[in-house]
Write a structure and sequence with these properties.
The protein is built from 15 helices and 17 strands. By secondary structure, it is of the alpha/beta class. Strands 3, 4, 5, 6, 11, 12, 13, 14 and 15 form a nine-stranded mixed sheet that branches. Strands 1, 2, 7, 8, 9, 10, 16 and 17 form an eight-stranded mixed sheet that branches. Strand 8 and strand 9 form a beta hairpin.
């Protein structure tokens, strides 16, 4: 192994592998370091991969990548204890090329993706922990690992080491993230025959469905649950901010067990066999939590840069695109022979000009708003279910009278002014 590389990438998740792939394709000498046994062994996400950002890296990747199902239907559930209000979209156009998004199993997909980086020329080293960046005269010049004689050097180090990013914290790029800036998600993969999945979700063999669940799935706390279809398994998970868990004294695995036994969810899982349990921290702070992303000889990408749109449950696409932007910056810096902070700040500029920061800025107040106003999940979701139950119950009451009763019950619980105030506050947070 050469002592010095052009680029060292720490972390073989979507962001790190994207950066390593593009740099290697342009002829740079790249070292990709992964702490897990293999790429994907330590990585967790709900299981949705977006086509657009992946296709920018590998055109027509769906023809060879280990994907589960193209998603043709996205559902949203507003769930109470014994009912659910649901809406969504199902489009058969998403079931044909070029598709919209896919369900994936990270352990399979990440290995395939990292292999593409290796085929392009990157050197992948697994089961290696980077303990710190090597800094000399204020510039990052390499990394120190837990291997014997584990110092490795490079012109640029790309930090893709996940939500806690101990390495960027050591560099002073960010402080310890607050409990309301981080969510803990627990997920279970449940094996289920393909025929049962197709029947229960009204799908054909090469069609997938995602369900995002709000309300009682988190016992009214800030967070969401999800249920995604794979070829012959389901991904079910639930996550809330750490601050919500602390306040309500919830245990994440208890919350997942509660979700699995919920009368709206239980029939979907019936007869399934648990295959895997996973847990993962997810950045939730959004725009206001994005740390310093470039320094002398170093850039920060993906979850390590807090690049997750919690409102739309987008993370992998932002990670991949940030990895691409970082690679473009590194390649340009290599051409100039300048790896200073002012040179690498081009990555920051690219990031802030992209859809990533623009989307995060749009929802910059959303998490804070919903965290400090628990009535949206605790009160309004049950209200919505009660209202729909009342409206669709045929009992001889005229529909106009039902509408009046529903409006009266909503305003009676919160008060007319507070309801209007809550509507305006929510609109302002997501407008």
């Amino acid at each position: 192994m050469p002592e010095k590389f052009d680029v060292i990438v720490v972390g073989a998740g979507p962001a790190g592998t994207s950066c390593a792939l593009v740099c290697a394709q342009k002829g740079l000498n790249v070292l990709l370091i992964e702490r897990g046994e293999y790429p994907g062994s330590k990585n967790v996400m709900g299981g949705v991969l977006y086509r657009k950002q992946m296709e920018e890296l590998i055109p027509e990747f769906w023809k060879e990548a280990p994907l589960e199902r193209p998603v043709i239907e996205q559902r949203f559930w507003m769930m109470d204890k014994e009912s659910v209000v649901q809406f969504g979209y199902k489009g058969l156009e998403w079931g044909v090329e070029p598709y919209n998004n896919f369900t994936v199993l990270r352990a399979q997909f990440d290995q395939w993706f990292a292999k593409k980086a290796v085929e392009a020329g990157a050197l992948l080293i697994n089961e290696t922990v980077v303990t710190e960046c090597i800094v000399e005269n204020g510039k990052v010049i390499g990394v120190r690992t837990d291997r014997p004689n584990g110092e490795v050097y490079a012109d640029v180090v790309v930090l893709a080491d996940g939500v806690n990013s101990l390495l960027s914290k050591q560099l002073g790029f960010h402080k310890e993230f607050r409990p309301d800036e981080v969510a803990l998600t627990v997920m279970e993969v449940i094996n289920l025959p393909k025929e049962k999945i197709n029947d229960r979700f009204n799908l054909e063999d090469n069609q997938g469905c995602t369900i995002e669940i709000f309300g009682d799935s988190t016992k009214g706390n800030l967070g969401t649950a999800f249920l995604y279809t794979n070829k012959d398994s389901l991904n079910i998970g639930v996550g809330t901010t750490l601050s919500s868990m602390i306040k309500s004294k919830m245990k994440p695995y208890d919350l997942l067990d509660y979700l699995k036994t919920h009368p709206m969810v239980k029939p979907m899982l019936a007869g399934g066999e648990s295959a895997e349990y996973l847990a993962h921290l997810i950045p939730e702070g959004g725009y206001r939590s994005v740390p310093k992303v470039a320094g002398n000889g170093v850039v920060v990408v993906g979850d390590a840069a807090q690049l997750v749109n919690a409102i739309h449950r987008e993370g992998s696409n932002m990670a991949m695109h940030s990895g691409l932007l970082a690679a473009e910056t590194v390649i340009e810096a290599k051409y100039r022979g300048d790896f200073s902070e002012s040179s690498l700040n081009l990555y920051r500029q690219k990031l802030y000009d992209s859809f990533i920061i623009k989307d995060l800025e749009k929802y910059k107040d959303a998490t804070h708003t919903f965290e400090n106003n628990p009535q949206y999940f605790k009160e309004y979701v049950p209200m919505m279910n009660k209202a729909m139950s009342k409206f669709f119950t045929v009992d001889g009451t005229p529909k106009r009278d039902k509408q009046k009763e529903i409006m009266k019950s909503v305003t009676a619980e919160r008060g007319t002014f507070k309801v209007i105030q809550d509507i305006y506050r929510a609109w302002k947070a997501v407008k």
